[in-house]
Inverse folding.
């Protein structure tokens, strides 16, 4: 049985998207990454308004990633739809690390100043599915 792995995240881009160099990517595909900050507002146990912010890394593969480099910028509002993926890498010091990231297949975004104009990007070629076939290791 195939389990459901689907996620929707709304937030603000923390920085401009960056292209990651991969030595052994499938078919020479490009990987673009960026972080989205998502706020949760709530009332704490003392009745005070509180805020929790999480920073979630997002992967975009192939042409979707290339369009992100061209169109997305720090501070833009972004809605990301995709799936969760466990990523592994080795630091410069040789330590193994792991993190959960979103592999995007649909993005909606708008500039914080232009609330009415929302643009949509899709992974129409299913490049993120091809990228998941191999285990990707990269260093920062």
């Amino acid at each position: 049985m195939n389990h459901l792995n689907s996620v929707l995240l709304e937030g603000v881009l923390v920085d401009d998207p960056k292209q990651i160099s991969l030595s052994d990517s499938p078919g020479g595909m490009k990987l673009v990454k960026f972080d989205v900050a998502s706020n949760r507002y709530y009332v704490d146990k003392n009745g005070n308004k509180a805020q929790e912010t999480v920073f979630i890394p997002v992967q975009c593969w192939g042409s979707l990633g290339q369009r992100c480099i061209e169109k997305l910028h720090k501070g833009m509002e972004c809605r990301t739809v995709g799936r969760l993926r466990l990523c592994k890498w080795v630091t410069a010091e040789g330590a193994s690390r792991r993190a959960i990231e979103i592999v995007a297949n649909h993005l909606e975004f708008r500039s914080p100043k232009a609330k009415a104009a929302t643009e949509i990007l899709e992974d129409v070629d299913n490049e993120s599915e091809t990228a998941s076939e191999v285990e990707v290791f990269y260093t920062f």
User: Anything to note?
Assistant: The chain has one domain: 7-131. Confidence is low (pLDDT under 50) at residues 132-140. The helical segments are 62-71, 127-131.
